[in-house]
Amino acid sequence: MRAVARWGALAGIGSLVLTAAASPAAPAAAAPGTTAAAGASPAPGPAALAADEARGTAQAAARAAASGIAFARCPARERLPEQVRCGTVEVPLDYADPAGPAITLTVSRIPATGEASERQGALVYNPGGPGASSTWFPLAGRLPAWERIARAYDMVGYAPRGVLGSSAPLSCQDPADFHRAPTAAPTHPSPSEKRERIARARSYAAGCARSAGAALAHYTSLNNARDLEVIRAALGEPGLTFMGASYGTYIGALYATLFPSQVRRMVFDSAVDPDPRKVWYRNNLAQSLAFEGRWADFRAWVARHDDVYGLGATPREVARSYDTARARLALAPAGGTVGPGELHAAFLGAAYYDDFWPRLAEVLSRYLKGDPGPLVERAAPDPAGARESENATAVYTAVECNDAPWPQDWAVWDRDNTRLARVAPFETWDNAWMNLPCAFWSAPRRTPLDVGTRRGALPQVLILAAERDAATPYAGARELQRRLRGAALVTEEDAGTHGIGGGANACVNRYLEEYLLTGRAPVRRASCAPHREPDPVSLDRRAGGLGPPHTV
User: Fold this and answer.
1) How far apart, in whole angstroms, are the C-alpha atoms of residue 212 and residue 204?
2) Predicted pLDDT at 179
3) Which of 133, 56, 43 is nearest to 92 (CA)?
4) Residues of the chain whose pLDDT is less than 70?
5) Which of 15, 108, 171, 246 is the catalytic position?
6) Which of 142, 180, 186, 273 sits at a 20 to 30 Å CA gap from 344?
7) CA 275 – CA 282 distance, rounded (Å)
8) How far apart are alpha carbons 208 and 225 in whole angstroms?
């Protein structure tokens, strides 16, 4: 499932993300190289397809290197200040057919601010998703944690294929329908509620197929990695310096496997487990289980500050306060638009970023004391952002459904998520509903690439991970390190913020800066003590109020 968007929050450059997956799936039989959807034509064998796509990538990269990128003022839709400049790069829709239809990607940049002797080329960033744009990333150079890095590097962001930008944005439903509210979010759905969700998932998958047509099959993680190679060539970089967060780490892992000789430096921040057996169904189940532990961390923190919030002196009492709010909102949605589903979406942020904790605890406290205003401000759908949110969900769904086999038998989903919800009720079913369209997907599913490099094939790469990260559980970082031989892993111990590079932990930031500026990293592993927990801050004592709501 996708992570909470920290749009414009640049501190911690913390990711839109996703991950996925869980108990044994039952993939359908497939032609070699793909998992065929019902009624799909046989696909070419994996060797022939891979060879065609490799040739197509080389041709597209050569064209991009010859054309370069003409940077100019960014389009108004990007909502970026004057100092950020934008250009476009053309990539094939289908790398096996590089002369066929093309997609135009938006690329943004602020040149390195240091002297010529300091400059090291371009640092390209992907924040995750799938479905997130990083065109805002060049602005990170304004932050103290990124200042020295921005002196050395052109800070480069981009809008991946399918994301709202220059061309070919994906859509699967009317944006007005996407933000309909209020909604329910039962932790243990009834048979009738399950039937309704199945129907909605089937309809959503049909909408994606109807809207995108044959192009739908080409929105994949492998193509996202190939797009990165074309962007590298267009920037004129002999080797790629890349940082990916969350799902962006999976793109980076695929790139390192496909193009190891083109890697200069690479940072993986909050790593997705790249084991092909876990992409994506099992990863989503693992994520749902991890969310339960992080939700418990939030409740324990709120309980320690019961004198501020009055939500309970124990985690169990805080949970009862939250359940009371859910029950009230089911009967009388706040502001007419915030029901249990919107409450849950807002509080999902607590599992991603502990700097959300004071605001969320205050919102809940205020609501239970009779003031729904802060909750409505925080959780109500924003009609102005409906098109962007619908597009991001469409890209997320297309990429994950296309990438790998998914169970096509509802009984498998029902069995696995019912079992999991008994021990991890907070996020299990909402995560399942997010991904259920993949059970009814019409486009062929690819076989995930077996990520990995032999020792010496890559320069040393750097993995950053928080030990209690729920969106990308820590085991994924260990697995990625095992597969990318020689990789270094820096762990923020006993912490759970998702996306830690450039964030609140000075120790982590020192490792990140040292690596990007010099190429030096720990021999194998290093640890950092956790960053400080947030201080409780009452809205009564805060001058600025809640600020704009974050979205999911």
Assistant:
1) 12
2) 84
3) 56
4) 1-44, 167, 538-552
5) 246
6) 273
7) 10
8) 22
Residue type, 140: A
Write down the pLDDT at residue 48: 85
Q: Determine contact, residues 496/5, Cβ cutoff 8 Å.
A: no
- Specify whether the CB–CB gap between 105 and 88 falls below 8 A: yes
> DSSP 3-state assignment of 426?
coil
Which amino acid, one-letter code, is at 4? V
pLDDT per residue as tens digits for the range 511-523: 999 999 999 999 8
Q: Tell me the torsion sign for CA atoms 537, 269, 126, 22.
A: negative
The pLDDT assigned to 2 comes to 57
Q: Provide the pLDDT for residue 43.
A: 55
| Active-site option among 218, 498, 531, 550 | 498
DSSP track, 218-287? G--HHHHHHHHHHHHHHHT-SSEEEEEETHHHHHHHHHHHH-GGGEEEEEEES-----TTTTTHHHHHHH
Tokens 């309909």 -> residue: 180
Alpha carbon distance 534, 305 (integer Å): 11
State the residue for tokens 């250009």: 87
pLDDT of amino acid 47 = 80
Distance CA(126)–CA(248), nearest Å, equals 5
The span from the CA of 189 to the CA of 290, in Å, is: 21
| Residue with the two structure tokens 């009230």 | 328
What are the two backbone dihedrals, phi and then psi, of residue 129, each rounded to the nearest 5 degrees?
125, -110
**Helix orientation angle between 191-212 and 386-403, rounded to the nearest 10 degrees:** 90
Is 430 among the residues known to form the active site?
A: no
> Does residue 177 come out as left (phi exceeding 0), alpha (psi in the -120 to 50 range) or beta?
alpha
Residue carrying structure tokens 């950020």: 84
What is d(CA 344, CA 330) in angstroms, rounded to the nearest whole number?
A: 12
Burial of 423 (0-12, 13-18, 19+ CB in 10 A): exposed
Q: Say whether 498 is catalytic.
A: yes
CA distance 221 to 285: 20
As a whole number of angstroms, the longest Cα–Cα distance in the chain is 66
Catalytic residue among 179, 469, 531, 550: 469
DSSP symbol at 11: T
Residue 549 is which amino acid? Answer: P
Name the burial class of residue 128, with classes exposed (0-12), middle (13-18) and buried (19+) by CB atoms within 10 angstroms of its CB.
Answer: buried
Q: Determine the Cα–Cα distance for residues 69 and 259; give it in Å rounded to an integer.
A: 22
The residues near 154 (Cβ < 8 Å, ≥ 6 apart) are 109, 110, 111, 112, 119, 121, 122, 123, 235
- With tokens 């993995």, the residue in question is 463
Question: Cα(552)–Cα(549) distance, rounded to whole angstroms?
Answer: 10
Q: Do the beta carbons of residue 157 and residue 125 sit within 8 Å? A: yes
Q: Token pair for residue 457? A: 């094939």
Determine phi and psi for 258, rounding to 5 degrees.
-80, -35
**246 part of the active site:** yes
Query: What is the reported pTM?
Result: 0.91
Q: Which helix (H) or strand (E) holds 178?
A: helix 175-178
